Amino acid sequence: MGYAEFYRRSIEQPDEFWAEQGRLIEWQTPPQRVCDDSHPPFTRWFVGGTTNLCHNAVDRHLKDRAEQPALIWVSTETDRERVYSFRELHQEVQRTAAMLQALGVGKGDRVLIYMPMIPEAAFAMLACARIGAIHSVVFGGFASVSLASRIEDAEPRVIVSADGGSRAGKVIAYKPLLDEAIRLSSHKPQAVLLADRQLAPMERVAGRDHDWAPLRDKHLDAQVACEWLQSTDISYTIYTSGTTGRPKGVQRDVGGYAVALAASMQHIFQGRAGETYFSTSDIGWVVGHSYIVYGPLIAGMATIMYEGLPIRPDAGIWWKLVEKYKVTVMFSAPTAVRVLKKQDPAFLKKYDLSSLRGLFLAGEPLDEPTARWISDGLGVPIIDNYWQTESGWPILTIAGGVERKPAKFGSPGVPMYGYKVKILHESTGEELTRPNEKGVVVIEGPTPPGFMQTVWRDDERFVRTYWQSIPGKQVYSTFDWGIRDADGYFYILGRTDDVINVAGHRLGTREIEESISSHPGVAEVAVVGVADPMKGQVAMAFAIPKDSSVITDAAAALKLEGDVMKLVDQQLGAVARPSRVRFVSLLPKTRSGKLLRRAIQAVCEGRDPGDLTTIEDPSALQQIKDLIKQ
Ligand code: ATP
Ligand code: MG
């Protein structure tokens, strides 16, 4: 069966299609109804079925592959490596589950996990899934204020954390940040469970704080059975990246998510039991949930959990791991590839990558020069895939497991099975069906399994934010612009709030960025629209030059600025030409590596940049502020 037929079945006979996918996981009670969409947009999947994510990720494999590696932990920060078999993982998860229970955690309670990339973080997630507690993992790179707002929102009974993490060899003490966050939050956890890595000194609050190791010793022989949960029960909440504003607490179910991941492992990633999957993301992001922890394990694969940078000890470290663990499927982000691009390309050729069948990239637009660079360097297929925290798994890509469609650079691909993706006119709501017409990318309900159930404790925000943004249509808005070409391939042109309106011409920031980054002197660029009394808006570009001396050499900067403008004129036309191209050493990004265009725009317009709790390095925004003042 070709992909077109596979997709058609998923849309025209969804019950039959998803019932079949549902058999990829194990149920305690089989579902009575595949899809209940009687209260849109609150779609419920596999109603009446009971199952457990931890059972499917761990226990289920004990029969056939108990001694096979399940979790491979590599830390280049602390120079440690440890492999847990499925049997060992099962044991650690049961111990952790027993510890959480001893601290008072039961079904439906929230457990907030604020941890570096260490095995205990995965044990905690799986232990929550096992006993039916709802985990809420907060990225370990966040400081107290961001953490406090998430503690307040999730109201966890227990927080699991550690003394510290390490980044580029520098220790980051987590515990003082956590203590401060708890102090700031009106909600107080009953207990805090702490893994002591002996990286940073750690003060304990008597009666509240518990050390992992001694508590684990009390539960060495723990046997904690999986709690059979309703398919529609809540498995976890996770916050969006906060690129466009206040992060949203995405709530996910149990059964639909398990099925969605199992299906994606087969039809998209083509990972087989016994092989090794390597996702370079962090457990604090959705990719870490779906494709470091749950997805690969559900598929019976070993998963690599990596603590460290892509360029330490050198830029070959990831490929060294691919060779050592015979990785077959790899997942990373364009931002990471851009980091590697600044290094010697010889590293891409140094190791035996013959096991690797594909490198999946997601999170931001994958520009063509970056895609070509990594594709030529590695000699493996590069598979762009587009999705969101909200969806939990890819919305657009090329489904290699069914039929490997040819990739087109610049396009993540076609709608995945189960997703009715459309392009609508943003103000009339009219569907745009002709090739290359630009509109908002939306998803028509019912949304497929794995998709968010609602915004945690805020059904109204879920409906209002996502389902009522297009006049007269109840569709889910991705808040991304896109077009579809004559072959049905989608192109994501940027966020709906990233459009520039120059004298009535609507331009996507991404188009201008692509054009500018095709100049050989430019390493990376951000384009924003800035209010202009004459034209409404003008485009303003901030670029990182390949040659950093350009930043301080006024004459060289002026020359490069002129060349870049000429290039945009040629490629897109004078209307798209930025009013200025300024050079900086760093661009403001979120912790997950996404450009914070809204913050740049606000600074350029002299406004308050708003919620900056997710920014990676505030000095990047300061550089822009200083430039604007000149
Ligand atoms: P917030 O919703 O809080 O503003 P965010 O949208 O950055 O943050 P995520 O869910 O992490 O949070 O990111 C999803 C977004 O990332 C998509 O809506 C899209 O804008 C972008 N994106 C993800 N993958 C791709 C891709 N392959 N190509 C283009 N854009 C992508
Ligand atoms: Mg978003």
UniProtKB/TrEMBL annotation:
Which keywords appear in this protein's UniProt record, sorted alphabetically?
ATP-binding, Ligase, Nucleotide-binding
Recorded hits in InterPro entries, A to Z, give: ACAS_N, AMP-bd_C, AMP-bd_C_sf, AMP-dep_synth/lig_dom, ANL_N_sf, Propion_PrpE
Q: Please report the stretch or stretches of sequence annotated as the Acetyl-coenzyme A synthetase N-terminal domain.
A: 3-57
Tell me the GO molecular function terms: ATP binding; propionate-CoA ligase activity
Q: Which residues form the AMP-binding enzyme C-terminal domain?
A: 511-594
Q: Which residues form a coiled coil?
A: none
- The keyword Iron-sulfur is assigned to this record: no
Q: Indicate yes or no for the key word Transmembrane helix.
A: no
Q: Which Pfam families match?
A: ACAS_N (PF16177), AMP-binding (PF00501), AMP-binding_C (PF13193)
Task: Cite the AMP-dependent synthetase/ligase domain residue spans from the record.
Answer: 59-447
Q: Name one GO biological process term.
A: propionate catabolic process, 2-methylcitrate cycle
Q: Which family does it belong to?
A: Belongs to the ATP-dependent AMP-binding enzyme family.
Q: What is this protein called?
A: Propionate--CoA ligase
Source organism of the structure: Ramlibacter henchirensis
